[in-house]
């Protein structure tokens, strides 16, 4: 990446006005440097899992109910014991100042306006304290670091900042081989930092080397490569916050997460950015739901693009979803205003999907039948 290059702030969103989250992709690509677009858009390996996420959701046909007396459904839902405007959270995503100068502050403010949780990444380019000051409901996402003292410090900071849940990502023993980043020798510009880490701890992320992803080099240096269930139990013992385990695909791991004290699991393949060849999340979701049997909440991420996808996830048994890339597209295209528009569109799509499926509320959507087409 050319040093110091960032997208221009507050470019107008697409004309005509966006009608869906997908409509933000083109304007985002137009404003972002090509290597930043590849970083946001790309997956690992040959990107087969990245593509499979979308195909699997498209194959889920929901059987609508009729004559249910539903005109204006209620979209509100409870996640981790709290009420929100819809069963959606903004997924944790690193270095959001890469796509817009306001970064995490803009996206968190948009989540606050939409009344949905914002999940703040360990690798946020704005500190957890500043993100909390937006007034958003913040869940803190933890990457396990080699320095356990830093892990403990991050936990203390998350508690002090008023975070309402802790999300630990468990599917990154190493960073998946993201070929676009390798081809681009992608590095983070010096003015975008991992603001939650001590100064200077992200130096490798800024060092461009031909044939190397600087982010992969950085995470290899600071992330602990061998997280175990004992570590999760240690974490459970250090926080009274709801504990969310993100990155579960095998139902056996979901059961182990429950045994370790998890309040929720996120069925996730990291948006197709870790093991290429892992199953699509919509494919494996019902197995995980069946395995935990309401002993914890199950959320879905990876591939969610519109309100019908939220309905599909609920019909497959999830309590809610995390939405990721489309929110970065909206942030890049229009800053906070773009992100607000995207979440408003998503809410409207979900409300319409509930009405068309004959569901008075999200809980009714979990009783719908689905057919896997194709």
Describe the protein's architecture and organization.
Keywords: Flavoprotein, FMN, Oxidoreductase. InterPro entries: Aldolase_TIM, Alpha-hydoxy_acid_DH_FMN, FMN-dep_DH, FMN_HAD, FMN_hydac_DH_AS. It comes from Micromonospora reichwaldensis. Belongs to the FMN-dependent alpha-hydroxy acid dehydrogenase family. With 374 residues, this protein is an alpha/beta fold. Helices cover 39% and strands 13% of the residues. The protein has a single domain, classed as Alpha-Beta Barrel (TIM Barrel). The chain has helices spanning 25-31, 34-41, 48-59, 103-114, 128-132, 148-161, 179-184, 214-222, 229-236, 251-259, 281-292, 307-315, 325-356, 362-365; strands at 60-63, 77-79, 82-84, 88-90, 118-120, 138-142, 165-169, 243-248, 264-267, 297-300, 320-323, 369-372. The longest helix has 32 residues, at 325-356. The protein is globular and about 60 Å long. It starts with 24 loop residues before the first helix and ends with a strand.
Q: In a few lines, what is going on in this structure?
A:
The chain has 374 residues and is α/β, with parallel strands linked by helices.
């Amino acid at each position: 990446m050319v040093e110091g290059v960032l997208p221009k702030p507050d470019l107008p969103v697409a004309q005509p006005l966006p009608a869906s989250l997908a409509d933000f992709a083109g304007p985002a690509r137009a404003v972002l440097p090509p290597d930043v677009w590849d970083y946001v858009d790309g997956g690992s390996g040959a990107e087969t899992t990245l593509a499979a996420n979308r195909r699997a959701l498209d194959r889920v046909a929901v059987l609508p109910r009729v004559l249910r007396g539903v005109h204006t459904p209620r979209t509100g839902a409870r996640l981790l014991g709290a009420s929100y405007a819809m069963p959606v959270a903004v997924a944790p995503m690193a270095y959001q100042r890469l796509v817009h100068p306001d970064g995490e502050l803009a996206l968190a403010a948009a989540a606050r306006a939409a009344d949905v949780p914002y999940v703040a990444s360990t690798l946020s380019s704005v500190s957890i304290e500043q993100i909390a000051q937006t007034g958003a409901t913040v869940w803190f996402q933890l990457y396990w670091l080699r320095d356990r003292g830093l892990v403990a410090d991050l936990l203390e900071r998350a508690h002090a900042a008023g975070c309402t849940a802790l999300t630990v990502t468990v599917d990154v023993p190493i960073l998946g081989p993201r070929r676009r980043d390798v081809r681009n020798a992608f590095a983070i510009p010096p003015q975008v930092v991992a603001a939650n880490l001590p100064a200077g701890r992200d130096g490798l992320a800024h060092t461009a080397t031909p044939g190397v992803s600087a982010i992969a080099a950085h995470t290899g240096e600071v992330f602990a490569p061998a997280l175990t269930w004992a570590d999760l139990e240690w974490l459970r013992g250090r926080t009274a916050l709801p504990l969310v385990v993100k990155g579960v695909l095998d139902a056996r791991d979901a059961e182990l997460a429950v045994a370790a004290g998890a309040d929720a699991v996120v069925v996730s393949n990291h948006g197709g950015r870790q093991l290429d060849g892992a199953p699509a999340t919509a494919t494996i979701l019902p197995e995980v739901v069946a395995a935990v049997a309401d002993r914890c909440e199950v959320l879905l991420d990876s591939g969610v693009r519109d309100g019908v996808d939220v309905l599909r996830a609920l019909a497959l048994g999830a309590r809610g979803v995390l939405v990721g890339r489309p929110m970065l597209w909206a942030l890049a295209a229009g800053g906070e205003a773009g992100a607000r528009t995207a979440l408003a569109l998503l809410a409207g799509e979900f409300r319409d999907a509930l009405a068309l499926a004959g569901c008075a509320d999200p809980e009714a959507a979990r009783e719908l039948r689905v057919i896997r087409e194709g």
